[in-house]
Design brief:
about 325 residues; alpha/beta; TIM Barrel; eight-stranded parallel beta sheet; 10 helices; 10 strands
């Protein structure tokens, strides 16, 4: 496993991080047991992963609880934890600045730690990214002074939001929606690099599409039921288009993760893992190298054929 810079006062983090959404107990989704969740975390550490991304609403708090149990007794200074606020343990939204401390204290208790390395505003409306018009960032600075967080930032989906956040706040971490089919946030990578803002790539496999396992005939009865038949047909055609470019022999999921790691501004990528086999395959993605001319072709594919589609995530 290779490691990349995160914050100036933290250790370097693994290029592949553990997205801990799947660790929790979710309705409408295939759940893993607590035993399976703990085993997944421990195996990820054996693979060299040291970055863990979670949130209060993941499994109504059970993701943080299980991650805390799995990491208990380990050297805290060797583990980097990112959590969020705004989506509560009940599933409700509360982006009030007065709720930040309450949310963080709950996360710290569930994680069984005294601090988290980074705390993010969890995909709020765009108006919250302007540091000149919101009280959130002053409170986050206070939490840094108290040693309860080392840095703060936001989880977001667009380049516009990304730039606004960096221009008006002292955010040092951004969790950006970025993959082969969604490259809008790429427009903020250079600014992030100039400002020493770490980028965590979320949804690198486009909710499973970039694994190559779905087709135009696929149907979903879980959270992915949000896609219409037309959405499914469109994405299936794009997967076929992508395979024609990268070659049918490629492991598409590993290729998609490696694509995200091809950008120097990216600190880590957090694919979801529902079992040890997926975890092992995702970890091997870091060993792939993609030629720059192929990266250029995929960027051109996005700008010429995909961007205008405004694909729903």
């Amino acid at each position: 496993m290779r490691y990349r810079p995160y914050l100036k006062d933290t250790i370097a983090i693994s290029e592949i991080g553990l997205g801990a959404w799947q660790l929790g107990q979710h309705s409408g989704w295939t759940n893993m047991s607590e035993t399976e969740a703990l085993r997944l975390v421990h195996q990820s550490i054996d693979f060299g992963l040291n970055f863990f991304d979670t949130a209060p609403n993941y499994g109504h708090g059970t993701s943080e609880e299980r991650l805390g149990k799995a990491l208990k007794g380990m050297d805290r200074s060797r583990m980097v934890i990112n959590t969020k606020f705004g989506h509560t343990v009940t599933g409700a939204l509360n982006f009030s600045p007065d709720y930040i401390r309450t949310s963080l204290e709950g996360s710290l208790k569930r994680l069984q730690v005294d601090y988290v390395d980074s705390l993010m505003i969890h995909n709020p409306p765009s108006s919250y990214f302007d540091g000149h018009k919101n009280d959130h960032y002053e409170i986050l600075e206070t939490l840094m002074d108290e040693g309860k967080i080392k840095a703060y930032g936001a989880s977001l989906d667009t380049c516009e939001d990304m730039k606004l956040l960096m221009e008006t706040t002292n955010s040092k971490v951004i969790e950006a929606f970025f993959n082969i089919f969604h490259q809008d946030t790429r427009g903020g990578f250079d600014m992030a690099k100039d400002k020493a803002v770490a980028i965590i790539v979320k949804i690198p496999l486009d909710s499973g599409w970039l694994t190559g396992k779905y087709t135009a005939e696929s149907r979903f009865d879980d959270i992915r039921s949000r896609w219409t038949k037309a959405d499914i047909t469109t994405r299936a055609a794009l997967v076929d288009r992508l395979r024609a470019i990268v070659g049918p022999e490629k492991n598409l999921a590993q290729f998609a993760i490696a694509f995200c790691l091809a950008y120097e501004a990216v600190s880590t990528v957090i694919p979801g893992n529902t079992n040890l086999e997926q975890l092992s395959a995702n970890v091997r993605s870091a060993d792939l190298a993609i030629a720059q001319d192929l990266i250029a072709k995929l960027e051109q594919l996005y700008h010429s054929e995909i961007k205008a589609l405004n694909l729903p995530w």
